[in-house]
């Protein structure tokens, strides 16, 4: 998949709105970050009472998804298997936690969404809810 034009602020806001709606429906206070196709922050949203540590983690998950053109869950799974997967822990700027999902439009990577604040699979669920806004 090729990198495309960066996600616009208006689309990033729609991604955040969809992710926040899913998080709120489940009673999860989360941080939602959207980065563009170069990995730079476009929008960040911290829901009321979301833990402060999740701000940096949400951004790192989104950047991982855009840098490696795949969901961050792939790296979490590799680390969980141990063995050679543990070498990923030495990769600079890699966040091996579920919750980072690439954003794809017209077959091109336009950015990524990262979510943090609950358990990994819940972060992943909320990130997917946001990604559905624009993913082909």
What does this structure look like?
This protein has 136 residues and is of the alpha+beta class. It has a single domain, classed as 2-Layer Sandwich (Beta-Lactamase). 39% of the residues lie in helices and 21% in strands. The protein contains four helices and five strands, in the order βαββααββα. It has helices at residues 9-25, 53-68, 73-80, 120-131; strands at residues 2-3, 31-36, 41-46, 100-105, 108-116. Strands 1, 2, 3, 4 and 5 form a five-stranded mixed β-sheet that branches. A hairpin with a 4-residue loop joins β2 (31-36) and β3 (41-46). α1 crosses α4. It is globular, with a radius of gyration of 14 Å. The mean pLDDT is 96.
How would you summarize the topology of this molecule?
Elements: E1 2-3, H1 9-25, E2 31-36, E3 41-46, H2 53-68, H3 73-80, E4 100-105, E5 108-116, H4 120-131
Parallel strand pairs: 1-5
Antiparallel strand pairs: 2-3, 2-5, 4-5
